[in-house]
Amino acid sequence: MSPRREPAAATALFAVVVAAGCGLGPGADVGSVSLTVTHDYGATPVLERPAQDVNESDTVMRVLDRNAAITTRYGGGFVQSIDGVEGSHTGGRLSDWFFYVNGIESSVGAADYSLADGDRIWWDYRDWNAAMHVPAVVGSYPEPFATGYEGKPRTTELDCKSAGPACARVKAALRRAGADLVAAGKSGIRVLVGPWSALRDDPVAGRIEAGPQSSGVFADFVPVAGGVRLFGLDEDGRPRSAIGADAGLVAATRRYDEPLVWVVTGTTSAGVRAAAGLLDPADLRDHYAVAIEDGKETPLPLR
Fold it and tell me: What is the pLDDT of residue 153?
């Protein structure tokens, strides 16, 4: 089993108190973290609590263990259930728990992931028939721009493929989020802004057209006469609905251990401007990706 998939359950959203660790002692305080637990691609939050201090000995597993009734397997390294709800592999459907730290799918198990000040932990119970690995999500915004990820700095390269108000709006939003904007080639995060026609040749962003099994993004840009249309995909990776003529999209993806890539894009310039307006915690919270058209926000995948 991949260490990135953590079977467990509880449809709950927690911003948690992280108390002292066990074993050899708690160690020094490193700050505070938050823990979010949801169901079905972030669709069902249940509970929210204020965050408190974490210690050097704390891990993602210890945070979860102190805030929910869990069972584990593989010698305590992986979560089997939370509050009695387990992963399900029946009827041809595969559902389990996955966790992210600052919006990045972890490459190590929960028992081995040490925490740092400001980290946002997100567990989500979801069907993974279409995409076992979703390498990055937008739902922990303003992370990773405020803190960074995997020990990498919060340095961010803003790459605008079209001039205009959308780029200026994204730049202002990233600065509010705490991003350290730097020159090309010096960042841990890349943010691409522009119409999809200008972004699709990027080797990482372009994986969106290969489907969620490649990019983890449940959206597709389909050529039509005179341009492209944005389609939202369901959890099986099937097109469910065209978003609209001037659709926008905010999504995140990653290839291997290369820098994280966020896309703020759309089918038209109007769509890009609409997507730029989504860079706000209230709009992105607990979503894998978000589409927008004519003021209507649509979390992806479609359900």
Answer: 83
Task: Quote the pLDDT of residue 201.
Answer: 97
pLDDT of residue 15: 39
Query: pLDDT tens digit string along 180-233?
Result: 999 887 778 999 999 999 999 999 999 999 999 999 999 999 999 888 999 999
Q: How many CB atoms lie within 10 A of CB 113?
A: 21
Question: How remote is the C-alpha of 238 from its chain's centroid?
Answer: 20
Banded model confidence at residue 46, pLDDT cuts 50, 70, 90: low
Q: Are 215 and 206 in contact (CB under 8 A)?
A: no
Secondary structure of 1-33 as H, E, C letters? CCCCECCCCCCCCCCCCCCCCCCCCCCCEEEEC
Q: CA-CA distances (angstroms) from residue 169 to 47, 157, 238, 273? A: 32, 15, 32, 8
What are the structure tokens assigned to 230, written together?
């944005």
Q: How far apart are CA 153 and CA 134, in angstroms?
A: 22
pLDDT recorded at residue 140: 97
Largest Cα–Cα separation, the chain:
65
Contacts 24+ apart (CB under 8 A), 23-29: 23/57, 24/57, 25/57, 26/55, 26/56, 26/57, 26/58, 27/55, 27/56, 27/57, 28/55, 28/56, 29/53, 29/54, 29/55
Residue identified by tokens 């790459």 is 159
In the chain, the domains with their CATH numbers are 29-127 (2.170.130.30), 155-300 (3.30.379)
**Which pLDDT score, from 0 to 100, does residue 297 have?**
97
